[in-house]
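Case study.
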Amino acid sequence: MELAPDDVEWVTCDSPVNIALIKYWGKRDEKLILPLNSSVSVTLNQEEVWEQSMKNARLQSVISQIKRLCRKRKIDGDQPNEKLQWKLHICSENNFPTAAGLASSAAGYACLVYALSKLYGVEGDISKIARLGSGSACRSIHGGFVIWNKGDAEDGEDSSTEQIAPETHWPELRVLILVVSDQTKHTASTVGMQTSVETSDLLHQRLQGVPKRIERIKKAILRKDFHSFAEITMKDSNQLHAVCLDTYPPISYLTDTSHHIMQLVHAINQDNSSNMVAYSFDAGPNAFLFMQEKDVPTVLDILHYFYPSSDPHFIRGIHVPGKHDTHVDYTAFSDIKVIPRALKFIIHTKPGPGPSVQESDNGLLTKDGLPK
Amino acid sequence: MELAPDDVEWVTCDSPVNIALIKYWGKRDEKLILPLNSSVSVTLNQEEVWEQSMKNARLQSVISQIKRLCRKRKIDGDQPNEKLQWKLHICSENNFPTAAGLASSAAGYACLVYALSKLYGVEGDISKIARLGSGSACRSIHGGFVIWNKGDAEDGEDSSTEQIAPETHWPELRVLILVVSDQTKHTASTVGMQTSVETSDLLHQRLQGVPKRIERIKKAILRKDFHSFAEITMKDSNQLHAVCLDTYPPISYLTDTSHHIMQLVHAINQDNSSNMVAYSFDAGPNAFLFMQEKDVPTVLDILHYFYPSSDPHFIRGIHVPGKHDTHVDYTAFSDIKVIPRALKFIIHTKPGPGPSVQESDNGLLTKDGLPK
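After joint prediction, the assembly is written out as follows.
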């Protein structure tokens, strides 16, 4: 989205959220947003856009990096351009329910950086620029299964992202996002991870174990080994939240409802003698449940049973036809309480592609550069 | 309590509960109940007795160890006795609210072992026998501040307890036990710690850090340095629960109410610019709050404010006179929600002595050996 007195150029993009399987928690450089550990994520098939004041330091940093690349191209002998003089009008919109508390800044910065790269005609590894906006935004630049290698260089040049496999690699994988009803006020993850680095003894042990865990989940993804994928994902989520609790003062993102979901997932898996579902929690109480397409009806039935809701739009996203007839035997879950209205709603999605350019008809700005 | 056809002997004892400041979590020997790390506790001024089936393996183990010591005395040249032929009648009573979910097996086994040692006339380190009943029972054999050194020997001979300071050393120290309303079903700590040893990577890091932490809390206790005492106590509680969360499947003892109490305690301490209160949580959601006598009225006022209750017996134990006039400025706590009826009640107590023999009039058995 772009405006100049006699010449208006604009670009409209969308960008996905991503959910980390091996979590990013702790920076080795606050300014360059370099992580203490590598992380692995899956990009979700959901669009999201975002808004923020132009005065934000990270936003400025992202724009100046794009301009730097643009300037570099010019020097390299490409056509001279006036782009560096342009005034920018940026408009963003979030079509992902904000209540989901998802990594919205990640999708937002990925979208912005992608849009700016198209507008300024710059190429190269834009994930490094996205990272300057929000660490995990660099993972949203790719679709499918993504690794963010932490790198060792002081300037962060080797802190880069790479696709492990595209979203088409494991088409059976599904994600249910369980948006819990009691959204509590959280410690911002930026502040939270800083405090963890300063105070948590256990974080050091975690950092030692991450490389092995990453190797294992890469293998599980490439082999489509759901049982291992689930176990590693759940263990990593639990370990992240353990480190949060070991932080001083402690940070707590999981609520009673989150713990109830965890308990239910383990009960489902135990009853199934193999992992049918995996949970992962970010810096909030909402659960991301992973499963295979064939198990979605069973899991949805169980969720309906334990978290009854009268909302006709309780399940959103990918449609699952009809009333299921999954014959779940609830005697295996006799320890677990039914909690009406524990969940606000559920979003049904799957791994998806990276950012893309949209048809200009869908733009958010008028040709005068003002929000529609 | 003891019965023989023509000869009845009995002894009635009481024994205190203890709360760990540096927690015991994980055994290096399941049968001998030898811990992976040393722990530090404070014995509370509360009595408790307990009941259990005689068939219990640990109970049998405790009785046979007492008899072994008795036999040894006899061989050593003491008067021969018929005690080894005695039939035992044991009766126990718990005057500590079971809802408090306290380490009741610890107090119960400490009491039993102490009573048996009096009855059989055996001497020596009975804390090692108490340990065979329930690990942390060995700490209830002493009053005041107690350390349980983990020991290294395979047979556990060097796994012993020792008093750091008697309860009279720090007479200003007070304990509030916050019994929360929603008592959830917990993983038994025996099973829980076993699973942690098998599955938690973070437990290893914890074990490496405990010796230093123990040195620091011993110093804080000896110097009556409440600020440090509070910080170490809270960090250790948080770390134990972090390890529980890192266990697979995860173990969760803390509820939303527990986390709310933690948040409130940190807010109080921050507002006070120095630690006024410390929390510690065992294998359940109830909080043990430590503070100095002078701060009890302020802390009680704040607890009344955030956890309003209409129960006339809301505060139990040591009496705090009248309506306090502590002038707490609640604007410092504007982030924290008021939760009516979050707490069932509060027990106000302080560090206390070890087990003692009671007047026989207070016995629980008739002279026929039956419960009164």
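Observations recorded in class. Chain B touches chain A through 28 residues (CB under 8 Å). Confidence is low (pLDDT under 50) at residues 1-5, 47-52 of chain B. We will return to this complex in the next lecture.
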